[in-house]
Amino acid sequence: QQQVKQSPQSLIVQKGGISIINCAYENTAFDYFPWYQQFPGKGPALLIAIRPDVSEKKEGRFTISFNKSAKQFSLHIMDSQPGDSATYFCAASIGGAQKLVFGQGTRLTINP
Amino acid sequence: NAGVTQTPKFQVLKTGQSMTLQCAQDMNHNSMYWYRQDPGMGLRLIYYSASEGTTDKGEVPNGYNVSRLNKREFSLRLESAAPSQTSVYFCASKGLAGDEQYFGPGTRLTVT
What is the rounded distance in angstroms from the CA atom of residue A110 to the CA atom of residue A50? Predict the structure, then answer.
C-alpha cells in the first residue's frame, strides 16, 4: 500500500519554465512533508520541507504548496535551470522526520 | 567532516551468500536509518535506530538484520541473499535538533 503517491514519473521542462511535481497522501496523521533532491550516483538531500500549519513555503526558486483538505502537496520550481535536472522525492512522516514514507520519485529534465 | 559514509560502494553476491553493509556518521547524530531504493518504488525504510542501543523495523525488514554498534556506526546484514534484494542501499542519520536526514552515497548490490 503506497501511502504517498507522486506524479508524474518523469517530466521535461524548458529552461526558464516552471516545473511542478505533485504528491497525495492518505494518512491524515502525517505532519511533516519534505522534498528530497537526488543527483545520479548520489544520496538524496533535503531540498525544502513544510508542516501542515502553513499552506505555502518558499525558499528561493523552490516553493511547496500544501492543501490539507485535499491531502495533497506539490513542489514548484520557478525559472527551472539545467542544474535542476535530478530525481525528486516527496515524503511524509508523523511526529517529525523519524520514519519517512517516500513517494515513487520524479525524474526531472530541464532542456537548455 | 565526511558526513555519512558507506562501504562498499558496489557488491555482487550469489544467492545464499551473506554480507554486511557498513555505515558510519561523524555528525554525532542520535538516529540512523537503512533504506533501499528500487526503480519506481522510491526509498523504503528497512530498519532504523532512534538512539544507541535501540533498533526498530521499518516498512520492509524481512531478510535483513541490523546492529547499532555504537553512536557512530549502524550496519545492515543480509544472512542469505536473494535476487529480490538487488537494490541500492542508503544509510542516513539525523540529529536531535532539526528534521533533516543526511544520506550517504549508497551501496549498489546485485544478487545473482
Answer: 25
Identify the residue whose cell numbers are 535483513: B64
Dist. CA B48–CA A94, nearest whole Å: 15
pLDDT tens digits along A24-81: 999 999 999 999 999 999 999 999 999 989 999 999 999 999 999 999 999 999 999 9
Strand (E) positions, chain B?
4-7, 10-13, 19-25, 31-38, 42-49, 56-57, 65-68, 74-78, 87-94, 102-103, 107-111
pLDDT of B41: 87
Kindly report, residue by residue over A71-94, the tens digit of the pLDDT: 999 999 999 999 999 999 999 998
Q: Which of B41, B45, B105 sits opposite A100 (nearest CB)?
A: B45
How is residue B66 written as a grid cell? 541490523
Find the closest chain A residue to B35 by CA distance. A100
Helix (H, G, I), strand (E, B) or coil at B112: coil
B4·A43 Cβ contact <8 A:
yes
Option in A4, A34, A45 nearest B103 (CB): A45
Rounded Cα distance, A24 and A15, in Å? 27
Q: Is B27 part of the contact surface with chain A (CB cutoff 8 Å)?
A: no
Please report where in the chains the cell 546484514 appears, as a residue. Answer: B77
Query: Which percentage of chain B shows pLDDT scores above 90?
Result: 87
